[in-house]
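Lecture notes, structural biology module. Today: joint structure prediction for complexes of three components.
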Amino acid sequence: MLRLDGLRITLGDFSLAADMEIPHPGITAIIGPSGGGKSTLLAAIGGFLTPDTGHVFWNGSNITTLPPGDRPMTTLFQDNNLFPHLTIAQNVGLGISPALRLSVTDRDLIASVIDRVGLTGLADRKPAQLSGGQQSRVALARALARNKPVVLLDEPFSALGPGLRNEMLDLVAETLGGTVLMVTHDPADALRIAQNAVLISGGTARPPTDTKTLISDPPPELRDYLGKTP
Amino acid sequence: MAERARPLGPAVPLGWAAAGFVASLTLGTLLAVIWRAEVPARLAPADWAAIRFTVLQASLSAVISVALAIPVARALARRRFPGRGALITLLGAPFLLPVIVAILGLLAVFGRAGILNTALTALNLPPISIYGLHGVVLAHVFFNLPLAVRLILQGWLAIPAERFRLAASLNMGPAEIRRFLETPMLRATLPGALMVIFLICLTSFAIALTLGGGPRATTIELAIYQAFSFEFDLGRAALLAGIQFTLTGIAALVAFRIARPSDFGTGMDRVMDRWDAKTPVTRAIDTIWIALAALFLLVPLIMIAANGIAGLTILPSAVGWAALRSILVALTSVTVTLALALPLAMAVTSLRPRGSSRLLEGCGYLSIAASPLVLGTGLFVLLFPIANPATLALPVTACVNALMTLPFAIRILVPAVAEVEDRHGRLADSLGMSGTARLRWLLWPRLRRPIGFAAGLSAALSMGDLGVIALFADADQATLPLQVFRLMSAYRMEEAAGAALLLLILSLALFWAFDRGGRANAAA
Amino acid sequence: MRPFLIAAGLLAGTSASADAPVLTVYTYDSFIAEWGPGPAIETAFEETCACDLKFVAAGDGAALLARIRLEGERSEADILLGLDTNLTAAAIESGLFAPHNQSVPDLDLPVPWDDTTFLPYDWGYFAFIHDTTLLPDPPTDFRSLADSDTTIIIQDPRSSTPGLGLLMWVKAAHGDDAPAIWQDLADNIVTVTPGWSEAYGLFLEGEADMVLSYTTSPAYHLIAEEDDTKAAAPFAEGHYLQVEVAGKLANSDQPELAEAFLAFMLTDGFQSVIPTTNWMYPARTPEAGLPEGFSTLIQPETALLIPSDQAARTRDEALTEWQNALAR
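The predicted structure, tokenised, for the full assembly:
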């Protein structure tokens, strides 16, 4: 289980505090107004930012200072998820071995995850030859191949149209086990696949609560964001 | 304050090792000369004159090169015409030429019996003389205008196309565009360009003396030569070299204070759509500037080719061997340059924005201020107790040439590495790609173009540089530039011209091959 | 693997054969070029000595002495070949050279030779060279040159042996009037080049009417190019002499071989190579005489030479005068 213990992150004037446990397994959404620090929180968990104080624990062991690649987690970014100069198979393969030293079993695994995300036959293409939706699937395939207990989604599907986006969210829910932490600016995304949600506002991340309850009976700061009058 | 975490990996110790290597070869050799000098040194009054003249000619050369480069770069940035890419490549050729070859090329145009004076005489006009301060500046502009154009062109192309679209939609004219878009860009780009050219001209020796017209045109580098060779006053040579370093340091500090470093990149293929520049007048102005620059830079090259073609067929076999040796030296020096520049660039990027990043980058630029003579002498002093310098002549030449081209390679690679890291660094971190895996699967493929360009530049500069070989070489080890020189000192001017043409062709061919190699199959 | 070995060989230089004793001769760069005197002399000497003669090049005469001083007593050099009489006093003062121990044969030098450390191997007169078709009536002395519109290219005395030679020439011929001569020459000087090669190259490109070189220069054009348009202008004051010398290093590990080389230096095997490779007069005219073209060269009536023990002082004085006169 992922635990954030007295975490505080300061970036210039901005600061964010978080203290919570994330349910495992399960999908947890991170919602809140833009600029509130959703991606910052994810970056601190993923190891791209070192917090000023506090710790990140995974199953009781302190991982606060581990480099990103050594953490039991994998991140899907908003953009630049693929290396444009490598093929789909290579891009997925990097999830297994960062030096692309792949065994026969590894190659079989790559082929099977590419199949699972519905890209059969496209393994030797370069990213530029795929559509936006297909590129998202490659990133997801790599997350599957990495097989880490925690997956961090930093709005990786935000550039897709609503239909494609829902398709990808369903694929995430269907394929990824373990803990999934998903940043989104659209409550509908959260309602669609996340059992729990973390609300970030006013420089604080609140511990996860049930998504449906949170959105149907929003606290005032979320109400402003959702734009609904009570 | 939360720090942006970035796993530093082995690039940082390797980068520091490379910086240490550069520092020990530049500052270390200077110390070696001081140590060997024993007696404390004093400057002669003539040395002060040399310092003044050096600063004067370097400042003038830098200002005029950059001033002329602005309209040329603007014209190249906004005009599309067949052969534009080839022209930009060819315009770079003077920068790659050995000094004496370039001087003879310039004289064929501007000399007493050159094209220009022949034409003036035919028109009953008084001839002009190329000798004097203006001649030194003319030659330096010839060498450095292409570099200035490249630096400034890069600045122009770095202005996002959207800005010009926005400007067009707001109905801005050329004056407004200059004020809101171009002037800020130039303010950021020009100090860097001025500094680079100032530094290159600071160590000028043969140009300043040959075209300077007499002892008035004594540069620091000549004073170093005099102290070393004529008076065997090593202390004074080292002191003068130290002054040269100090001047460089001051110039670099001034430039860093007023500028952000501009890129010296490779993506010159783009042409801006400029809605404000579609009038016949701007079109005519641009055409004239491009034509003038092409004439100024290409005619001397054509004269070198014309003079050399007859000699090409009667070259002695020693020239062929020397050419082969030069190519090997160039290839070795490319390898060394990249082995230094890549870890340096990676370390500089990953240490940003810490102060140590700047220190590291500064080390990479040290060699631009080094006096080749002091560097060679210092190396000699250091190597002599351990090995016979003559057996090390070519490896040492390759290393020193690599060192001399390192500032250019760093200038090209640091922004390129930074851009790749910006875009793909996080993903690579999240996948745990570090060290060689990162180099092989991310940086190398993404950096093929800038690496190819840096390698080409390094190879060509190494081909043409006489460098320290003359200090070390024995009979069997002459490089091609040295062989050109030997032919000249045996009255064999025709063969020398042929060998010089061969040198020009090989330099350009090496540059082209590396540059192409970087472009071919360069991934999307 | 093979290409790699070839590359390594090219980079590392060739190594000498193992058994024969090696005689190392430091000399200036142009001496050892394929078309210079070096290769023929190497062959001729190795036929007589059962040794391996190895030339090492280091720039020009001044750089050569600097190199030896830099290396000091640990130098591998046995012989230093290529200084001229302007530098021999400084060389002897360094204490690095040993007496030549030779009974000097009759020399064909315009001056007597009594140096016990250095032996001459060739010599020449400095002179201004011109093209007779373009300048049929060249100046006849420094005064008329200074008063004329004739343009000249000279070399910098600080980086070039001929450049220094000219300084000594003016000083030897005009003594205390030298500064005045230089002041009047200033407007004749097109430019001052770092070395002889640049100056001569510029002259051949038509950059000036005359260039400072040697009276023997026209012989090259005559013999190698069959071109008789180049000539040296005789100057009434006389011409300054350059005598090129070689000496034995005190720390040589092959002292006998070194002396054998110095003796060989004044025989035909060495001397006959000099005229058409170094384009200078041999110190001892070979039995077969001089090549034909040499008879057409001007023969100065007065040979000027400042004795080597005074050369250093005169040099510094003359350099200051020269710099002051031309810096205006």
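Point to remember: Chain C touches chain B through 65 residues (CB under 8 Å).
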